[in-house]
Amino acid sequence: MKIELYGENSYVKEFETQVVTANDRFVAFEQTIFYPGGGGQPCDRGTIHQGEETYKVIQIKKIDGKIIHELDRPLHNTEQAVVMKIDWSWRFQNMRYHTLLHVIAGYLHQHYGALAMSSQIESEHARLELAFPDGKMEKVPFEQLEQLIKNLIAQSHCVQTKTISRIEAEQKEGIIKTIVNLLPTSLSEIRIVQIHDIDEQACGGTHVNNTTEIGNFSVIKIQNKGATKKRIKIRLE
Ligand SMILES: [Zn+2]
User: Fold this and answer.
1) If you measure from the C-alpha of residue 207 to the centroid of ligand 1, how many angstroms do you get, rounded to a whole number?
2) 80 C-alpha vs ligand 1 centroid, how far in Å?
3) Which architecture, in CATH terms, is 5-86?
């Protein structure tokens, strides 16, 4: 049974499940729709409901392969089923930001060989740091980047995910191979996210199904971070 449901369907907002372990306020469930964060994407917010009781989920962490939900107080009953509800407006905003970062990084990789070094999504903006091969950064029309990305998004590209074996992933050339080599060797299966021909990479985050769902955004700042690196700051409208 698949425990982490957010990876298969990022649009499930509510789900009923059972408790597996409960240690004071720290609970693991049979299955979960709560994203524990990672890859620059913050963890979900939401609530756990049991009978008349509502518990706030204040933190979610993956510990030794288990997803541990930190609640605001210990669960009243660990035998009774619970209903999970994620804060959908927070999750959907993070899905939009995260997918937009894929599109920007993918576009700059495809056309200028840029490599995404890190990314971080905050509540009011997101940032992406990219490293360019020698002589490539100067060729990027940064003042037109926002419009170029908006045009790509408007083309209504599907965002598809699939799981492949680690061996298969290691045989792929380019960016996926680089990322897969950095993943823990205990991972035998790798989740691949593909946005048309714009981007294909290993990623465990949550994404929108179609680029049009990203909606409107602005590039709010582009900074130099050394001779071959740029930091791009974006904000969803
Ligand atoms: Zn992703």
Assistant:
1) 6
2) 34
3) Beta Barrel (2.40)
φ, ψ of residue 149 in degrees (nearest 5): -70, -40
Q: What is the pTM of this model?
A: 0.94
The DSSP-derived string for 172-192 is S-THHHHHHHHS-TT--EEEE
Q: How much distance in Å is there from the Cα of 191 to the middle of ligand 1?
A: 9
CA of 133 to the centre of ligand 1 (A): 23
Q: What's the CA-to-centroid distance between 157 and ligand 1, angstroms?
A: 15
Helix, strand or coil, per DSSP, at residue 10: coil
Separation of 33 CA from ligand 1 center, angstroms? 16
Distance 208 CA to ligand 1 centre (A): 10
Q: Which CATH number fits domain 91-236: 3.60.110.10, 2.170.190.11, 3.40.50.1980, 3.30.980.10?
A: 3.30.980.10
Interval 25-34: pLDDT, tens: 999 999 999 9
- 37-55 pLDDT tens trace: 998 999 999 999 999 999 9
Which residues, 6+ apart, have CB-to-CB distance to 48 below 8 Å? 27, 54, 55, 57, 69, 71, 75, 82, 83, 84, 85
